Amino acid sequence: MLRVTMEIIGQESPLIRKLIKYLKTANKMVRLHVKKGDESQFLYETHVDAMVEDVLYEVTIIYNGRLKILRICYEIEDLAKHGTMLPPNIMGLTDEQVEELKLRDEWGEKCVPMGGWTFNKDAIGRRNGRQPNEKMQEILKNTVEDARAMISKKLVQQDKLLTQKIVQDALDILRGAVTIVYPMGLPPHDVIRQEFENTEDLTGTQASLEVIDISLAQLWFSGKEMIQGKKLKNFLGSNEKTKVIVKLQKRGAGMPGREPLMSEEERKLLMLHAYKRQEQIKNI
Q1: Nearest residue to 113 (alpha-carbon basis) of 171, 68, 70, 177
Q2: Calculated CA dihedral for residues 249, 251, 257, 259, nearest 10 degrees
Q3: What is the pLDDT of residues 28-51, one digit of tens each?
Q4: If DSSP codes are grouped into helix, strand and coil, which group holds residue 102?
Q5: What family is it from (predicted)?
Q6: How far apart are CA 95 and CA 13, in angstroms?
Q7: Which helix (H) or strand (E) element contains residue 265?
Q8: What sign for the dihedral angle of Cα 158, 162, 167, 169?
Q9: 231: which strand partners?
Q10: C-alpha torsion sign, points 221, 223, 229, 231
Q11: pLDDT band (50, 70, 90) for residue 218
């Protein structure tokens, strides 16, 4: 069809020349294997003509998005077991203290799960113990499992990309599951709701140390920082169809460790080969 169209309107058409150029480069992408320290995070695809700052922005958004999803999944598992979070003025108090101070979990009385609840006390006193029924628990648990699979680090081994859209889709299914189970919504102080609304406060938590502020983010390749204002090809070369390891970190953390010359799997194979060779020599 394209060939016939070209014959009709002529190959010299500027539109056709642009189309040919696009078709030639459409499948030629550079693939970045993003790591944080020595740990694989995800695969990201782009062009060598892309600006470093554009790639850095999107890679950091995806990285932080993964962390958000994992935090939400952890909290939803607790939600399925122990219901919504207690208000800050009740959290951590004993039942006797709550009764003595005449405090009430008014939001917990409004935000009840679909189908009712049974009491399952939260031993650490963060949630009100109003556990959803088994059917609603399954909805939450299955959705958590699906969301984790969508952003899993195992995708790297499967040679599958992670994109902003996939991260957003994972957030959307988590939000949808919570809405099904809690049609009246969650209390404003519940960290799940705050995560969905991007009003979470991670101050003083381990999670705050993991998140990377975009203004402080850096990408490194082969022991060199990829400087903003330049294109990827200034560091990776002009070959589009390539796969490289880049490392994401916070400014001021110093140069990340270089990648080993061979992977752990390659090292094991080399040792196995050396052992077999040694056994062969013994038998000569």
Answers
A1: 177
A2: 50
A3: 689 999 999 999 999 999 999 999
A4: coil
A5: Belongs to the CFAP298 family.
A6: 79
A7: helix 264-282
A8: negative
A9: 51
A10: negative
A11: very high
